Here is the input.
Amino acid sequence: MGGPERGRPRVVLAKPRRRHHVASGGAGQAWALGARDGSALAAGALVGPGFHPAMAEERAAAREAFGLPGGRLALVAAGSWGVGRVEATAAEVVAPGVATPVVVCGRNERLRSRLNRAAVPALGWVTDMPLLMRAVDVLVENAGGLMAIEGMTTGLAVATYRPIPGMAWSARRPSTRPG
Here is the structure.
């Protein structure tokens, strides 16, 4: 039997086990690798209950809570460290005039200061990410993983753009498949 496709997470079955807990979608791969019927269980939701699509009144309240402007907003997320080509991404969101970027800089205060000086809405560490995601229209992130899943769960269009090193292939591949 061949290995998993490039970029797909590998499911490894440790024997002997009665139950194999895998992330959603991994149960099929576990069964294909020999898990007994009923022994591979999807772990369920990977995000908290606060992540859900926003109703119009929730979006307005969330924007007010963060002091965000009206119009279409693109959340540009750069992880807890605020790394990557974040300023270039924000500029490319602004260029066509379709959306205003709202950049989450994590703990990178220098990045936040530079963006604020350039009149780009920039936030530092955000403790209520579900609320922030309900305030915006699209998520542009650079690492894939949980942030992308949170965005999709919130009903946002999600783009992995300018991925940071080590994330380029693994972050894009699973999200390009239907379902």
Remarks:
- The chain has seven helices and seven strands.
